[in-house]
Design goal:
The protein has 458 residues and is mainly α. Helix 4 packs across helix 5, helix 9 crosses helix 12 and helix 12 packs antiparallel against helix 15. The protein is globular. The chain starts with 15 loop residues before the first strand and ends with a helix. The relative contact order is 0.12.
Amino acid sequence: MVSRAYAQGRPVPSPITLIGTLLLGLSILTSCQSAPPPNPDQELIAKGRALFFNETFDGNSRTCGTCHREENNMAIDPGFIATLPDDDPLFVAERNQALMKNFENPRLMREFGLILENQDGFDDLENDFNMRGVPHVLAQRESVDSRDGPRTGWAGDGAPGDGSLRSFATGAVIQHFTKTLNRVPDVDFRLPTDDELDALEAFQLSLGRQQDLALPLPLKGTVAKRGQEIFLDNALGKCNACHFNAGANGNPDVFGPGVGNMNFNTGVEDLPDQPADLTGEKVPPDDGFGTPGDGTFNTPPLVEAADTGPFFHNNSIETIEGSVAFYNGDAFNNSPAGQLLAGATGGGINLDGTQVVEVAAFLRVINALENIRASILLIEQSNRSRGARAKELLGLAVADTKDGIEVLIGGGLHPQAVAHLKEAKHLTRRAARSAFSRRRHAAAAIRELEQARGEMIE
């Protein structure tokens, strides 16, 4: 989708060295900022981060971070939207007379987190549009490339021109930043420069995981361990065929080496009683990739899925359990992708209720493990930062830890790990509030996070 593919990682500031000195019989602890040679990559990432969250490109006051919130997994959802003030740039269509029609649907945005997109052009704004959710944009280094070219956004159609992640920002500005529906460059907005596109790309590629998992993992939990077995079983769950190692790429043993991210028509558009349709609001069928579309959508990574719902391109299913159960239904099994899978494996997917829950438990656990990894990294980065940035990083670590707690509680999983995560969240907050004990509380928080991880995986 035209403004989708932004991801979650942060620039790493220069390190701080603690030097203990003994002076006049008193032990004095002093912090001093080291001055290593500049890192061009980190400087470019830092520039991209500043552009992503602060640059309006002379438009309607939105930034890339308007829809891709750092404190909300680089995405937005109805629950998060409900916390925003009415003057937030997200709601510009409710205030700007020039954008009140055919720019957004405020009701569908607030109720279901859906954003209006014009993938097929701007010639017929009244009728030619799609309503799509805002997905997380984490781990794009591992999820954008494909054998057929870059895949950005829900259908692999998020960027104009060459379809690359670098081009993505250009499409985002034209679609979402404009002051009027005329969308005239240098009047309604300015386009990013080549240098800005380079920086935005570097920042987006730095976000989240930088490599895929290597399944199977030595999980401890009985239910999640069984879920992993089903996930990897090509005769049962069959999930690993399209979500290799729970990522966004096709299994090279099934689709050939170097296949990367793939597009499929999974039948999501054929689901009955889709929430947005029940409102009576105009929601045209989404034809997916291409103009006209071929009905296909690209494969999202699953490691980050459990805490980034609602699910699918149209936010049609709320829970991770519901999204797993979708693949048991007629919409998927009768779809082109379902028929392809059945032909390759001898039948469709037919999990029972306990097996659906077990696969979802596996996805919840790997999500919580990723939350822990990210939280530890953020706390470590805070130790190499100072002032407001250190506090900001700790706040983001709290958010990631909170996500891990909610993901596990939502599946009734690993109560002992939840207890450690709750203590880690408490200690990280104390670190953020403390001027003199920040490092001590941060170290204690990391220990709790590591203990939580130890409850879930060998």
